Amino acid sequence: SRESVVKMGPGESRQSSGGNALNRLAVVTDSTCDLDREEAKKNGISIVPLYVTHRESVYRDTIDITSSEFYPLLKDRDELPKTSQPSPEDFARVYREILNSANEIISIHISGGLSSTVEAARRAAESVGPGRIHVVDSKFLTFAMSFQALEAVSLAIKGIPTHQILSLLTQLREKTEMLFTLDTMEYLHRGGRIGKVKSLMGTILGIKPVVRVEDGVYIPHGKARSLKQALVSMVEFLGRKFGRQKVIAAVGQGQGAEYAAKLTDMVKKTLNLAGEPYRFEVGPVIGVHTGPGTIGLAVRPAKYC
């Protein structure tokens, strides 16, 4: 049911990781962040789910349906799953509860170029707490968006003022890179998310597209003759981009664990990592549009300002 929206407890979880700092400022995101729910809980981040619909069933993303339960649905050639954003009331319920204990909220969401989620959040913010709820278009998705949510928590714990956090998140966003490769363009095409990468459609069978997220939309980055070559091109590009700068990386996959492990090894050898790369699984809502066999990589500078 769309009525049963889940939240990562705004009370207890914020207190456990940030004490008074996160009672002053709470962080909200949506389920397309692909942040592990335990990691979200540890950091006091509230997650509002999007929805996946298949035939007569409506599922809350990552709550009513897991990635392992979702991907088999893509084999239904007669009716692919569909996605929908949370309603403004979904957000409003979360915001009202959080504002019982927090003074302000920063709410960070999937790019407005890919989803109307951020607009629903803005409408809810205006109705619930104008001036107290700051809605941010991440201009990204999956873990490139999680980077911003995790950074907002870190800055809040340090006592950085809200207006300054918002400015710093803009700087972080401008210096973050995200690329991914797909086993097939079919799902982007059928889901209506093809956008500027349509130029990659007419490739011969077996060519793997490399897609970059830029200014909140997908753009073509290149083509490779194999998945391994696609991964090499992604890592080489990021190696040129960041050089020896210390970075934080996240490697994700949707039904592609073997290649994600290979990508992780390549990232460790090429980039100057500040720590172990995050690992994430591409969730159902994003998986509807990317399909099985997707491998992604998000990278941000450890120091960005």
Description of the molecule:
- The chain has 305 residues and is of the alpha/beta class.
- Helices cover 38% and strands 25% of the residues.
- It has twelve helices and 14 strands.
- The strands form three sheets. Strands 8, 9, 10, 11, 12, 13 and 14 form a seven-stranded mixed sheet that branches. Strands 2-1-6-7 form a four-stranded parallel sheet, sandwiched between helices. A three-stranded antiparallel sheet has the order 4-3-5, with helices on one face.
- Strand 11, helix 11 and strand 12 form a beta-alpha-beta unit.
- The termini are far apart.
Question: Which terms summarize this structure?
Answer:
disordered N terminus, alpha/beta, 7-stranded mixed sheet, 4-stranded parallel sheet, 38% helix, 305 residues
Q: Please tally the helical runs, counting DSSP H or I stretches of 4 or more residues.
A: 12
Give the mean pLDDT. Answer: 89
| CA gyration radius, whole angstroms | 19 Å
Low-confidence stretches: 1-19
Largest sheet: 7 strands, mixed
Distance between the termini: 43 Å
Strand content: 15-25%
State the order of secondary-structure elements, H for helix, E for strand: HHEHEEEHEHEHEHHEHEEHEHEEHE
Helix content: 25-40%
Class by SSE composition: alpha/beta
What characteristic shape results from the CA principal axes?
Answer: globular
Compute the number of strand runs. 14
